[in-house]
């Protein structure tokens, strides 16, 4: 892979902006609510702006790794600070920027322990940025854990609905995944003979088949827990329901992508033979996840559970795309990570707004909610349409690419996935109908609709969904620049 | 020049003399004693730092001063200084015994300083006993119920038994090699280790330090001593004493390095049992110090992973981890001391509402606990990953897998502490006021937990050049 050094440390700035923000927050007083929110917003805004810059500024004709920064960190152990941008992580950096920026705006109304909340949220997002840009396994794993652990505190303090149980379950599941990842990473490190954590250098090594098989399955299971791979997904609906709005946004929107991105970036990249060996299992679990998520989601009456299970099925689509190992499949998988991230963020953001006011997420209790809050309901309905894969939305293209590839490579599993998605779409529309177009519940009649300021974050999210729905080539063209050499390297 | 080689030891010997005269006073002056002792211990730390790069031999080559020993001396001096810092009020110890408390902690530190420099079997034994006897006195120093006596006796008995094992092992080594000098013994070891006597000798010789490090099967004292001893004394046992033990385990285990498979395999088994046992039993503990005792058993298992690699990086990561453990464990104990101002044993549930009572302390606690649990970006995460890396480099895949799974198990009980401190509301408990030195201490500890965790290179390189002398 060609590496182009950065003339300015853009990526480090993107990474450090939240760190600087949270350091400033440490010294602010809890009472200065506006200052706290402004500092968080500025910190998130700088990262957001830089993520747009790297997305737009990436030179597609040049290809390879760009904006590279590389410093030796711990010589004795071959650890380097090595960050860069290529076609497959640029969309995800952008996604993180979008979600953190809109997340801070969404939590503008938070009243309880505001300062701490933003400190933990910024810490979490630092980890997410770090994972997406790191090309050194040590830093990759370090950031991965940073992204996972603050969730415990975030859910515990600001969450709802069985939060103690959910927080502990989520953390232990994800840490158990880490317990599998560490041996996997270290096995590659030591058996390469290079004693380096640098992924690009490790990629050049031909690992023996049994090492590849063993490492791949360790990493697949370890990262798969976070990616919500069935049957290790059970923490995710519970966790999403319990988490506060912006954390659900970040978690379902971005964090779950860390898992699938890591499977692509570390496991498949470094152990191609291991991937070939386990691809059938991956496809099977992914297809099961799609079917399972759709049908269990149908039975739910809590809106957040509906979204939680739809995440399981949509992440199944990502998994299915990865399992095909083809150009279309991987393109679609990365595109789906982005599209699903924005879409889920919108989902949770809309539900969060409704829940903050009505204190219910029950489908039947909300009844004809669109007559009370037409704008707030519109946000949810847009997300639901996107989730159902309506053309003109970003997910449509992503799912299309994945399903085409899937039917070619795994025909039966692919057809099952398509069938359940169609059924799922039908039922999703019924959820929308029951929630928003029945008789309105008189209890909620006096609520006011979304103000333009509070509607802003949702508008940004919808904007991105529609933009990439109308111009998918912008995204696919970019992703392709890295997927093509990726597949050649396998 | 020779004086400077022996600098830290001389300084702490003089400090012990000063404190001895303090203890002769008829009416105790608690505040003055504390201030003088703390300041002098702080100076002692600076002295130890100043002597960091000394090199040479003393006392007929029985005593070696090199980077390895000097790093640990600085760590020990730091540990003593930190423990003095949090001993401002010692409610658990009678006022007339405060001077003795400082005195015996200092002699213990002195003993351990001599220990890390000793390269001759008898010197090792004598220094070990100097530090152990000080602790045998310190543990039952606590006033009140008889729990301290039980702890003291348990500590003494298990300590004596492990000393016995150790002497027996040393006698084997001496008998087989006709020398008490490590420098003479090491070249003769490869041939000796082929027979059982060498292997048994080295393993038994390690017993004394496994006791201090609370490695299975010499761990039985830890829970009772942690719970029964005065909080400050336990802090010292849990931090400085562990660092010294790691130093000596590294030095003595090097004897078995050439034995290859058998010896390493024995250590692998001890490591696995220690960490699994420690972590599993810690889950059910209600008492904070007891939980930390079991966690220390688990951490001893982690450290062994670096030892049994018998490589430069393995030893370096063990040193890194020993220093890291000193910092992070001390941070947790400091919070414990501040919360239990009256010197009682703290239940984990009694941390409730800490967030409201003192946000700063709760931040230190969460960082210290996360570091112990191996969560990044902390010194504990980096240390653990380096240990795992060096074990994996020698091909111990299963050991690393078990270690990593143990990390997950341990997270459960560490999170319970975070849960209590951050989430459970305290019932109208007063806020905890911190004096400015302790506030500064809090910030310094938090900064070093994160700072050295993210930028470990300096310490790793230092440790790497230190272990060249040992391996």
From TrEMBL, chain A:
One GO cellular component, as annotated: endomembrane system
Transmembrane segments: 6-28, 35-58, 78-105, 117-135, 141-158, 170-190, 210-229, 241-265, 277-299, 306-327, 333-355, 375-398, 410-432, 453-471
Residues of the NADH:quinone oxidoreductase/Mrp antiporter transmembrane domain: 134-419
A Gene Ontology molecular function term of the record: NADH dehydrogenase activity
Keyword Transmembrane helix: yes
Biological process annotations from GO: ATP synthesis coupled electron transport; electron transport coupled proton transport
Membrane topology note: Multi-pass membrane protein
PANTHER family: NADH-UBIQUINONE OXIDOREDUCTASE CHAIN 4, PROTON-TRANSLOCATING NADH-QUINONE OXIDOREDUCTASE, CHAIN M
Name of the protein in question: NADH-quinone oxidoreductase subunit M
TrEMBL record, chain B:
Domain NADH:quinone oxidoreductase/Mrp antiporter transmembrane: 119-409
GO molecular function, a single term: NADH dehydrogenase (quinone) (non-electrogenic) activity
InterPro entries the record matches: NADH-Q_OxRdtase_suN/2, ND/Mrp_TM
Chain segments annotated as transmembrane: 6-24, 36-55, 67-87, 99-116, 122-141, 153-174, 194-221, 233-257, 263-284, 291-311, 317-337, 358-375, 395-415, 440-459
Function according to Swiss-Prot or TrEMBL: NDH-1 shuttles electrons from NADH, via FMN and iron-sulfur (Fe-S) centers, to quinones in the respiratory chain. The immediate electron acceptor for the enzyme in this species is believed to be ubiquinone. Couples the redox reaction to proton translocation (for every two electrons transferred, four hydrogen ions are translocated across the cytoplasmic membrane), and thus conserves the redox energy in a proton gradient.
Subunit structure and binding partners: NDH-1 is composed of 14 different subunits. Subunits NuoA, H, J, K, L, M, N constitute the membrane sector of the complex.
One GO CC term on file: plasma membrane
Gene: nuoN
Protein family according to the UniProt entry: Belongs to the complex I subunit 2 family.
GO biological process, alphabetically ordered: ATP synthesis coupled electron transport
Pfam families membership: Proton_antipo_M (PF00361)
Protein name stated in the entry: NADH-quinone oxidoreductase subunit N
Enzyme Commission numbers on file: 7.1.1.-
